[in-house]
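Amino Acid Chain and Its Fold in Token Form
===========================================
Purpose: to set a sequence beside its fold so the mapping can be learned.
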Amino acid sequence: MPPIAITPEITLRPAVLSDAQALADAQIRNKAHLAATEPYRDARYYTAAAQAERITQPHSATWVLVDGERIVGRVMLTGIVLGPLCGASLGYWVDGEYRGRGLTPAAVEEVARAARDELGLHRLEAGTLTDNEASQRVLAKCGFVRYGLAPKYLHIAGQWRDHVLFQRILHDDPPAHVPK
């Protein structure tokens, strides 16, 4: 996917290894902002080496929101599975200083398009804490439908937390390996 202007100042583009330090810096800068919605992260997570591993992990794809040279958000597809499932899990965050600008829905829409058109995926799923209404609004705005509740889904902020589950069906075509 080529870089896409989300606003005149903010661009969404695939992450590259040279983004690792800027991603680590963004994670450090947003540690307090993300603490209520993110699982425990050890000190290594906030290093360029750990962020490089995330960028290159198998069965995943990472995009970054960039303002000049500064990374101000990330959208990831993890657990990408082809074959009869053709799906992945969606995760995202935006810098606390950039909230409320519509960046997240715009980025999620572009990543969903890339998941469908470039990766050939059929379905994306995402989960939010039950009280994370802002993230639930992002998903609803982007065509995700609530389909369930996962009790004690992730360990966040010192306890196992329930999550609302969402999905978006991207198309109804058969998987690429199935003749039409």
User: Anything to note?
Assistant: The CA atoms of residues 125 and 167 lie 4 Å apart. Residues 103-117 form the longest helix (15 residues). The first strand starts at residue 4 and ends at 5.
